[in-house]
């Protein structure tokens, strides 16, 4: 069996208002995921910083926002990962749409 592997991106955010909680997002597209993070934080003040050299994890992006420790501490991160295409976000959405039809 030949399984195709695809790249996905996972973001984990720490939200502090009104109560502390975390939010996880997964997307097949890094730029779309960054746009979603911007929308969650109201569209302003978000800074993305490549952290590969700091932590040694290829492709790791730290997310900063002024609402979290005045923007001094990352409020989240984005990391790439690989999964079989049959388990990808796109395939999952496709299957859910077929079930709903």
The main sheet comes to: 5 strands, antiparallel
- Strand order across the biggest sheet? 2-1-5-4-3
Number of helices: 3
Distance between the termini: 29 Å
Compact overview of the structure:
The protein has 101 residues and is an alpha+beta fold. It has 3 helices and 5 strands; from the N terminus they run E-E-H-E-H-E-E-H.
What does this protein structure show overall?
With 101 residues, the protein is an alpha+beta fold. The chain has a 5-stranded antiparallel β-sheet with strand order 2-1-5-4-3, with helices on one face. The chain contains 3 helices and 5 strands; from the N terminus they run ββαβαββα. The protein is globular, with a radius of gyration of 16 Å. The model has no long low-confidence stretch (mean pLDDT 86).
Q: What are the salient characteristics of this protein?
A:
101 residues; alpha+beta; five-stranded antiparallel beta sheet; 3 helices; 5 strands; 35% strand
Topology:
Layout: E1 5-15, E2 21-27, H1 30-40, E3 47-50, H2 52-55, E4 61-64, E5 76-84, H3 89-100
